[in-house]
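Example record for the data management plan.
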Amino acid sequence: MLSVFYLHIPADNPVFWTLQIEAEYYIFIGLFFVLLMRMPKTSILISIPVLLWLSQTQLASYIGLLNFIVFFLIGTIGYLIYIKEKNKMLEYIALLILIVFSFLFYDLVGAIASVCSILMILFYRKPIHSALEFPGEISYSLYLIHFVIGVKIINLLQRHIGPNYNLVPFILAMVICIGASCVFWKFIEKPFAELSNKVKYGKKKTEFLNYDLEIEKAK
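Corresponding structural encoding:
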């Protein structure tokens, strides 16, 4: 029952801890996005400072999302900059504050990764090579199963081979994990993604989705 509500992390696959954060984020953004679209300036000026403050309180021990909220907010504000055609000064200031906050209160690797990601999203306009598209498609499935399949294969094989062949278990585990990820993507991820695309949104949301599609076509 705990697993149904993302309150339990199975010991044999600890990477599932991220699913709890994602579930909390989907609930959060479902509520926050409405406020953000109706009152963007108010949301930025009030909600973001409050959320950043909460992330540094004891409440973050009970709501996992708060531990990573700054990174989600960087993506959210980046989205506003991405879809907005003019008068982006407030959003850029908010983004700068979020980035500085991430460097001050979080580890350097996470801060740098978030900065590089948002800069790539906002300013990289060249087409992505097709060779990178499919690895991107299966990357999440690969992340979810790499421990339960890949790590265990490596641990098992290392008991039976000499130290001169340590690379063999890694290569074999990678091949098996990628193959399994392809299966997961084709028969689970892709069908459910197609179903989710059929969900009807309100007029405002539909306009943003259409705008994103026009940008993608223009590339």
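Summary line stored alongside the record: The chain is about 75% helix and 0% strand.
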